Amino acid sequence: MTDASRSRRALPVAAAVGLYALCSWVIALPLGLTPRYQLPTCACADVAQEVWWLAVAAHAPFALHTAAIDVPRGVSLLDNASFPLLGALLSPLTATLGPVASLAVLLRLAFLTSAGAAYWVLHRLRGPGIGPVVGGLVYAFFPYMTHQGASHVFLAFGPLPPLMLGLVYRQILPREPGAGRAWARGVALGLLAAAQFFVDSEVLVLTAVVAVVTLAILALRQVRPGAGTATPPQGLGALRAPARRLGTLLGSAATVAVPILALPVWETLTGPGRLVGSTQPTPETVGLLGSLLPGDRAIVAGAWAPWRVAAGQYLGHSSYVGPVLVAVCVVVAVRAWRSDPFVRASAVLTAASWVLQLGGHLALGARPTSVPLPFELLAHLPVLEDIIPSRFGQFVGLGVAALVAVAVEGIVSGWRAGAKRRAVAGAVVVLVGIVLAAPDQGFGAHGVGPARLFATAPVGRISTAPAGLVPRGAVVLAYPVPAFPDDQAMLWQAVDRLRFRLVGGYAIRPGPGRRTDRAPLLPAPEALPRALVAAHVRATTLTPGSEDWDRAVRALPAFVARHRVGAVLVEQGVAGSGAVDALLRSTLGAPAYRRGALAVWVTAGR
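^ thats the sequence. predicted structure below, dont judge the formating
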């Protein structure tokens, strides 16, 4: 191959990467440049927690447990979506610019790598052209992915599932691959599976489920009498060759993945911190019409209020596809079902993922009915009981991206064949569908508030706090006590690079009977932290002379001494802060100093 031909082949790839990089930068534009302390606005506590996971990974990469929160017990990292692989890869940046900047970089990388991976797989399976480029855009900037980017960056990081599914598809193609190539694909699959486990194990399980369901449906079609085109082999004999190839792939994948994942999986399932039951809250309900009705993050379709699906942040936004793209996918699937195995596999993947996304019971709106759906068969199985069904939306997006790529291929072929009017009409339809599904420009952003005070090194124009705002290595009692949905104290701790430990924290942990619990551990004597939690929730329980007040006053000295509390931090202006401030003044005296919205008591406990 000459240098000129290499350049011609590399130019489209470079153009696609440049386009994806531009879109990734634009969609995260509200966060500004990375040194600025801005976070995505989310009606949840997960964004601050994700900043905290990045700080933990920089402090102790691939640790299985941390004692930075939930003094004195700590929490297991394996029971939480701590994405240790991403945190470890970004640890040099986290150590240099801080975890907030790392989150902004990770968000942009999530969209860029997801688009690039989808493009690479489609390019390998369908050949060069504009179709794979458009498919990469649809997958990475699909409503599901952009929705997750505002709240769960580890779910928006989606390059690995397309690569894994692409390897499986290539292995079961009718043509027999060489043995060496089969083992190479298996090793690659094993490495990708291990990597996905350390990004998010739930997505790994989702990938396995959709792969098994899709292969099972395709296999049933293959053995059905009269299936396919010209006289394929009938009965179970038709499955022998693909089953043998698939077995070779999975066997070689297991030789790589099992040694890597054996210890963490064993620790998760049988270790002392193991959980019983589902770790997820009530499953998110996706309505039957959610794919057709937009949320308010669809920049064009969502601008017309009557169209919007009647659901909250976690519901309608992530399931939307749009009626035009749905029609495009149906037309492509019907026209090429018999002749194109790739279209057949993509259509089955899309349909199966969409049905699983609906959850265990059919929902017409936000409330499920009593009509059971296939996901109900999975909801009570070990490991699978942790799946949130709406997260199958990632694979709906991947299937739609593949079918749209095929549609674009057909449009280009029609143009070259002289059917220019038909090609133009098809291009207009696809473009309208993409525009109707296009997300709003990024998402809201907000500052980190008092967390700025904990910056211990100059970062851009961020003012730095004097050394000793909190004693190094101290146990800190913060108000509000960090818990869901207010975990801002964990953000303070992350920006301060985990130089202190916290009472309480937002994490998944074993509660009574090892059942999943999100409530913070309240160390003894519980009267003090329990009164602080109640004060933030109700804002009126701590009044002088009340029972809660008297218990908290008696418990405070014992609590400080028992847990060697080195500092007490109170954020001013939040619910109940005035009562807590008065309680601490009556017991510990005036605060040692104030910094912005924080009042700081430094105690003798270290």
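The chain has two domains: 3-31+98-437, 450-602.
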